[in-house]
């Protein structure tokens, strides 16, 4: 699992947006509880921001060099699907 979260060098920031209590964000919260410590340990200098706001649908944003940014919705995805989505964003610029 640890190699899965070795970020590409061009990745400058990762942001997770989700609701603290909403059912649509339950899988995202579960994923972050499990995977955040591993991601941070493998990438100590890359900011990984967790933004919680009531009623927010779960999304991930990845910001790369030169201001390029990609967004992917995590709504309706399982923990495993979220892991695949995050892996694809943090490995590909």
UniProtKB/TrEMBL annotation:
Domain Ribosomal protein/NADH dehydrogenase: 20-93
Gene Ontology, cellular component aspect: mitochondrial inner membrane
Membrane topology: Peripheral membrane protein
SMART domains: L51_S25_CI-B8
Assigned keywords, A-Z: Electron transport, Membrane, Mitochondrion, Mitochondrion inner membrane, Respiratory chain, Transport
UniProt KW Ribosomal protein keyword: no
Domain of life assignment: Eukaryota
Subcellular location: Mitochondrion inner membrane
Family membership noted in the UniProt record: Belongs to the complex I NDUFA2 subunit family.
Biological function: Accessory subunit of the mitochondrial membrane respiratory chain NADH dehydrogenase (Complex I), that is believed not to be involved in catalysis. Complex I functions in the transfer of electrons from NADH to the respiratory chain. The immediate electron acceptor for the enzyme is believed to be ubiquinone.
Protein known as: Thioredoxin-like protein
Organism: Cercophora scortea
């Amino acid at each position: 699992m640890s190699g899965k979260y070795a970020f590409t060098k061009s990745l400058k920031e990762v942001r997770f947006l989700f609701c603290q209590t909403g059912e649509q964000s339950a899988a995202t919260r579960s994923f972050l509880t499990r995977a955040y410590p591993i991601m941070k340990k493998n990438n100590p200098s890359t900011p990984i921001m967790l933004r919680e706001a009531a009623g927010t649908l779960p999304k991930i944003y990845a910001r790369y060099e030169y201001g390029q940014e990609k967004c992917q919705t995590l709504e309706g995805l399982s923990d495993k699907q979220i892991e695949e989505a995050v892996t694809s964003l943090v490995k590909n610029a």
